[in-house]
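Q: Here's a chain of 451 amino acids. Please give me its 3D structure as tokens.
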Amino acid sequence: MIFELIIAIFIVRYLQKSMKTKTDLPTWNIVLNYIMYAAVILLVSYLVFATARPVTKWFSHLLLLYLIYVLYNEKIFRQARPVLLAIAPFILLSVFNDILQLTDEKQYSTIKTLTSTAIGFSFLWMIAMWLITNKQRKALEKEKIKTQEEAEQKSIIASMKDELEVQVAQRTAELTKQKEELQQTLEELKATQSQLIQSEKMASLGELTAGIAHEIQNPLNFVNNFSDVNAELIDELNAERLKPKEERDEQLENEILNDIKENEQKINHHGKRADAIVKGMLQHSRKSTGQKEPTDINALCDEYLRLSYHGLRAKDKSFNATLKTDFDENVHNINVIPQEIGRVILNLFNNAFYAVAENKKQQPEKYEPTVSVSTKKLNGHINISVKDNGNGIPQNIVDKIFQPFFTTKPTGEGTGLGLSLSYDIIKAHGGTLKVESKEDEGAEFVIQLPA
């Protein structure tokens, strides 16, 4: 009796451990726990309460028979069948022995020796089967470990294969990059060739002249005005010094000298401003050397916006427009050919002012011409946007505006090469030139250059 309950507890623990019921079979793990708790309770009751032993014995038989039934009937415990074969003979003979003893005492005394021998052999059978099962289980575990190791080796091989594929892909990407660099070099050669056409066709210098004259007039006016003021201050200083020493106001003399000094600084500042404008004009008119150099894109855009505007104002003094700028302070100097990028920006400004001027003629009262320029550093690129609120570009010709000799201007007002050459220049710099336009709402040209 006691031995049977210990076997039940041992089998339950074996099933929970070998089949990992706690994680893989949580429902059956609860059932097995109940069986184990019942076996423990019956064992304690049998040991403590002597009067309850007959009843406890039969409950123990029922518990073990239920355990045999579970192992035999449930498919999920199929791999535990060897355990069933090991314990079933011993348990069944024990039950048979108790039933025979209860029903026929006389017959039981006759075959008692036989049943005891059979139970002994079943016990030996149980031990032998248990050892065999345990050995097989260990063999299966070794085989499982071996299978896992083989799977890990296959996984390592697959990982090495993936690494080789990545290396092949990287090498392919490098070759592709070299190919693209060669293609880019070829395109740059083509762009250099097109500069011969560009030098013949782009007539932006003449359009700049009026704007430069207006721009340079401002600093010259400052220079003249401060020079006149300084002359007056010097005359006043000399007059003060001609007075007798006791009548001279030294504090006044010092103030005049400080004013003269400040005015000289202003004259110097505006002189340098005029010098910069002249240098910009010369740089624009000079043939490009093809050499890239660090260039302040914000300053370049601001300079050409005002020169283009004043150039149009020189032709039509009644024309006025709102100029808007939005420059990203993170946009620093970038390596470009300044003459070429300047021509592109100037061309876009000239087109924008032309568009708003034409629109102004059509609706002189309700319309306010506006041209804006902005820069933005984004994802390793510099974006330059030139936007106007003119008539816009019809959708049916948007795809044609970058074609050579295509123009929307009347005959004699445009060669049709400005945007085409601008597109080639930007492309030669490794960038892009795109247009977004809605008819009657305006157009926006976006230059993207590598930062």
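Q: Can you summarize the key feature?
A: The first strand starts at residue 293 and ends at 295.
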